[in-house]
Design goal:
There is one protein chain. The protein is α/β, with parallel strands linked by helices and 512 residues long. The chain is 35% helix and 16% strand. Helix 2 packs across helix 3, helix 8 runs parallel beside helix 17 and helix 8 crosses helix 20. It is elongated.
Length: 512
Amino acid sequence: MSIGVTRGVALRGIAGHVVDIECHIGQGLPSFDIGGLPDTALRQASQRVRAATISAGHSLNARQLTVNLSPAAIPKHGTGFDLGIAVAALVACGVVPAEAASRVVHVAELGLDGRLRHVAGVLPSVLAAQQAGCTHVVVAPDDVPEAGLVEGITVSTATTLAGLVEGYQMLAKGELPPAATRVAGAEEPRPGRRLDLVDVSGQHEARAALTLAAAGGHHVLLNGPPGSGKTMLAERLVTILPPLTREQALESLAVRSLVGGVPSSGVDRMPPFVAPHHSASVAALVGGGSGAVLPGAVSQAHHGVLFLDEAAEFGSAVLQALRQPLESGEVVIARSRERVAYPARVQLVLAANPCPCGEGHGKGLACRCRPTERRAYAARLSGPLMDRVDIQVQVPKVSLADLSEDPPDSSAAVAERVRVARAAQEERWRPQGWTLNSEVPGPFLRRSPWRLPSATTATLDRALDLGQVTVRGYDRVLRLAWTSADLHGRPTPSAADVGLALMYRTQGAVAA
């Protein structure tokens, strides 16, 4: 009787748990059992591991193997345990030295010919290994750049299982394995997207609204006819946002790693921009699915921008599913046997036409929609979701005069103003644990010493009394007013800042 032990990682969302992979070889009829709450793909690992070890020259067919993934109470998913199970079995057989493999984390799928193959979720797996104190991981060759983004980790790889076994045997003899590659926090900055606000002609009000949104982290609705530049504006929001810190970039990349979206050229500090099609389902937008619980578009845009073009064409249930993530910055997906949480702190940008045909702007003389159709279209973007959108701005068609104007400010110039405004917010709110005006609870702004004088908020108070804004809307106007003051270098908002914030708040979602 002998036992082999190595390590793998069980992922639940982007949180990982280092798992001990134990393999016991006993007396009895040949069998291969895997315990520890494996899913269907993991239960089939026995077939892949048997074929891969035969290809490596070490057959397991005549042996009784029992594999335990400990702790056994945590559900295990996917094919990333294949390599760890094979190594543990070969340790138990005496082929691989026990000391060499016992503390190494293995994350790779095995082909029937013994090749190490890519798996999703390598980055969060390596991050979990780092947090657990592990210093050495083995991944497939395609996953080395992704695993190497984590600092302080030795990343090794091999083309085949036979090559890995040879490397372990050489390591036990004190020799350097030829297949080992040391990567410690490799980072090659990726070229930024070649987008710039200078490309947008005219649209002065929309550009100002975008600057305000970037400065305070506010959600935006761009309402206008087709061809007015709504998509251009939304795509350029990420160019005026501050670059992500390394920790933020890794957290964002960890989510995208689960769906295969990590670039091979290093850590991208540009905030992500995700634009799902209007036919997306609830699971595609917020996460879930019938099999593995995967992150949706709102989590893939974590620390970046989620853009919903043709927002009124999205299903009502899809739009309403965004309400909770926008408030909490997190998506929680509950299943009968597990509960998975994904981060979802995003800036939401909605774009919509004024009516189904798109011509209901200005005097609307070319509009072909009936009044009932216009009202039904407007109702798709009303209610609780729009109550969470701080800035609603009209985007008119670009005129010939707009095309002949001098070039507007570039993204770099606007980004500098945004940086200064955000620095002021961070200095003000750091003692309370916040960094942006959009994160400050409304009741806090309505209490001393942050409560504004009644003369400053008179217009807003009247709007609340008349029912033009809700209490949530009242608080959001205050946050937007503070952002306007920060952009203009004022220590506290003026009546003009409150009036500007109220104007953006009450322009209306879709022209009826």
